[in-house]
Amino acid sequence: MQKAANMAIKRGTAKWAIRQRKHAETLPQAALISMEVKTGRVRAMVGGTDFDKSQFNRATQARRQPGSAFKPFIYAAALENGMTPATMIADEPIHFRGATATQYWAPKNYDNKFEGPTSFRNALVRSRNVPTIKILQQVGAAKTIDLARRLGITSPLVKDLSLALGTSGVSPLEMIRAYAAFANNGRMPQPLFIEKIVDSSGKVLEEQHPSFSEAVDPRVAYQMTHIMEAVITDGTAKGISSFGAPAAGKTGTTDQNVDAWFVGYTPELTTCVWIGHDQNISLGSAETGGLAAAPIWLDFMNQAKETYPPSGGFQIPPGIVLLPMDNSTGQPGSAVGGNVTLEAFREDTPPWRQEEPPPAESSESPFL
After folding, report:
1. Where in the sequence is the domain holding 47, given as residue range(s)?
2. What is the per-residue pLDDT across 144-159, written as a single tens digit (0 to 9) for each?
3. Which alpha helices (DSSP H) does the chain contain, by range?
4. Cα angle vertex 20, ends 18, 25, to 5°?
5. Between the N and C ends of the chain, which has fewer C-beta atoms within 10 Å?
6. Residue 8: which CATH number?
7. Any domain includes 365
8. Neighbours of 76 (CB within 10 A)
9. CA-to-CA distance for 149 and 303, rounded, in angstroms?
10. Is the Cα dihedral 91, 97, 99, 102 positive or negative?
11. For residue 82, is it within any domain?
12. Which of 1, 87, 11, 77 is nearest to 41 (CA)?
């Protein structure tokens, strides 16, 4: 597993150098960390591209902006607070006043376009910034930060709307811990680096066992997994859809393509990949999480299939129902196909309210 991680990083940065050969002066750094979902055992970790040149472990020590890889925490908080995959949000220009009358913030989407009414599901799958900011506005930064803390994010987080764009630095270790909770029905595993230390006589000096904390409702965890499966099959990570096994994840790209992330998981493994320069300079044009980081994840996870053969898929917890939904309108769908997909809804949070029956006619005057 460790050899596979080292090779995936080397091949990934080499491919970057080929794409950016006209502009590349130095290779970027990269990090990868992979953990078993059910135990928390760390199976592979790469902290940089060349240990002889730099011993700094970017997988555990670096704090880099995650960009859109932070969005799942906002969407999970929204699901906890009554939103559903069918909730519609307007993807349209917005402006916020700054500290003075002449200052304002006008956030945009990565492609500088607006799609109009957008379903909650599509907003995450397509990584739309404006709908995410609106969701954060409605849910509140405090509730989102509380959920992130439950998921093991310990780094300082800004308590403003820029949180929606992943502006607070986090480590890859924090990210795999958080995403592993989505993969593990809401139970967050604690990373386990060393299981046992034994001296020369066989005496056990120290021993660690898997431990977990209940981070989120299993139904919310599955809803997030179901949506993030579509990130790979139909969204910003579609370039790695050839993986050919149940998997979910999210890309992340920061301003000017300074950082590129992909955090993805199967029912067995959660793996985070980050690539970027220590000097916080751009990776280059179009070097997004989907292009720069996700293929490294794919390379490693394809090799990991030898140790962790693909299973039957993610377990659906009690209280979840799969219903056909038209992703373009958020309304009930008929036959699955095209814009209509099966989406995961909580039985206690119906996506489409039944029409209230008309009141019974009465001959009595309401004023008597």
Report:
1. 2-88+137-319
2. 999 999 999 999 999 9
3. 2-19, 71-80, 120-125, 129-139, 141-150, 172-183, 218-234, 294-304
4. 105
5. C
6. 3.40.710.10
7. no
8. 29
9. 32
10. positive
11. yes
12. 1
